[in-house]
Structures are given as C-alpha cells and as structure tokens.
Amino acid sequence: MSNLSKFDKFYLEIKDNRWYWYFSIFCRLILAIGFFTAGMVKIMDERFASGLSHLHPMGAYLEALYHTGYYYTFIGIAQVIAAILLLIPRTVVLGALLYFPIIINIWILSFAVRFEGSFISSPLMVLANLYVLVLALR
Questions:
Q1: Residue 102 pLDDT more than 60?
Q2: Measured torsion, CA atoms of residues 78, 83, 84, 89, in degrees rounded to the nearest 10
Q3: What's the start-to-end Cα distance of the chain, in Å?
Q4: Has residue 38 been placed in a domain?
C-alpha cells in the first residue's frame, strides 16, 4: 500500500510540474508530426521510404505493403487521425490509444528486420506515447 501511495505522490508531483507538462506537449507534437507526414504519404498513394532498396527486408516489406491497395491507404488514414487526435486536448487519450498499436507494430517490425532507419526512433516514439498515455489517463 505504501508503494502505491509513493507512486501517487510522484505522479502528482509530475502532474503539477510545468516542465513535465511542456514535455508532454512536446511529445504530442513530435508524435503527431511523425504520423501526419507518414500518413499523408500513404493517403496520397506514394511509396513510403521509396529510396530504400527492395533487397533490404524493410524495403521489400514496404513495397509489398504499398501493393496491398486499400490497406495501405487505411494505415495512412489511421495515422493521420491519431496525429490529429493527439493535438486536440480533449482527445489526447483516444489519439494515444490509437497511436499505440501502430507504433508498437512499427517498433517490432524494425527490430525483426534489423532496420537501422528506425532502430532508435521507434522505441523513443513508443516511450513518448506511453508518457502521454500515463499523464492523460490519470
């Protein structure tokens, strides 16, 4: 019981600290920018990371994903909706919840195919999303 109260105290300190609040806004903006740009590429039916070789496993995956048609566009729409929801204060929780499975998938895929391009950025995006979720859910 004392551990829970310690966590609650720590959480309230974070919630009242203006710098943590600024950091949460920064995380929301960066996450939104990342998904908005990637989602718009998919919605406009352009190849994502077109400079990546088809011989690389990630390049082959993205090429195959591009050829799925409506699924590719659907992923882009989901990314743009998640980005917009993250920017609106009342819908932060919904945006972060929509964002989470998409970014987890990207993170696992990056590690599975050993893609250096998002080897660091995707885990950081997962952590930023978790930070936003924790602050928004309580």
A1: yes
A2: 130
A3: 18
A4: yes
